[in-house]
Specification:
Chains A, B: InterPro entries: Glyas_Bleomycin-R_OHBP_Dase (IPR029068), MeMalonyl-CoA_epimerase (IPR017515), MMCE/EMCE_epimerase (IPR051785), VOC_core (IPR037523). The structure is a homodimer. By secondary structure, chain A is an alpha+beta fold. Chain A contains 3 helices and 9 strands. The first copy, chain A, is globular.
């Protein structure tokens, strides 16, 4: 069922500082910041040779990463996103196995314009897992 | 400087359970467990199409992930490993930029038999970063 690792998301309190760190100190290819107000984050992509890392900074009121950053003020790895070919088939299999889907269990359009689901960290070794249909 | 994302490591309290989850529920290709007593962990590799995820369970006394699991009893993302071509050049550049290298600052032979360094999470957006020379 799982395809590629689409991205690892790292929540950061200061996107400019984290971008400079990846660009200047680690020598990575770093995108310009992109505001995604409908997702409550501003994102910067770190383009690696085989996948990407996304740096997320809260945007606006009620950002979905605000709680995480209040618990982890330095930032930290927030979620991991795996690609699937068929998100509805993935959802049905997960539900049949008793895994909890966050929200109302229906795929939403994610930050890349593709259908996504988030899985409950308690069911996935303490890790927030995003599935994205590609 | 950064090449591929070599792996994301997830520390888990129960390796058998986490392996079954990735194999049976998420339908991923999962290796047999491999004990690495010199690193204080037992590891299972989740082989994805473009990279891998490593599930780590503490092995023996003083495992380097024991503290993390006592703070995160369900498990969680422990570190992210990036590939570099020249680990000594990477280290010198990082030190020149004021980033802290863990331990004595000398590369060790990591779990894959290659030279590795770990960077201080406080300097890398709250994320424990491993660099591996490939």
């Amino acid at each position: 069922m799982l395809g590629k690792l689409n991205h690892v998301a790292i929540a950061v309190p200061d996107l400019e500082k984290a971008s400079a760190l990846y660009r200047d100190t680690l020598g990575a290819k770093v995108s310009a910041p992109q505001a995604l107000p409908e997702h409550g984050v501003t994102v910067v992509f770190i383009e690696l040779d085989n996948t990407k890392v996304e740096l997320l900074e809260p945007l606006g009121e009620g950002s979905p990463i605000a709680g995480f950053l209040s618990k982890n003020p330095d930032g930290g790895m927030h979620h991991i996103c795996y690609e699937v070919a068929d998100i509805m088939a993935a959802r049905d299999r997960l539900k049949a196995d008793g895994a909890r889907i966050l929200g109302d269990g229906k795929p939403k359009i994610g930050a890349h314009g593709k259908p996504v689901l988030f899985l409950h960290p308690k069911d996935f070794a303490g890790t927030l897992v995003e599935l994205e249909q590609v």
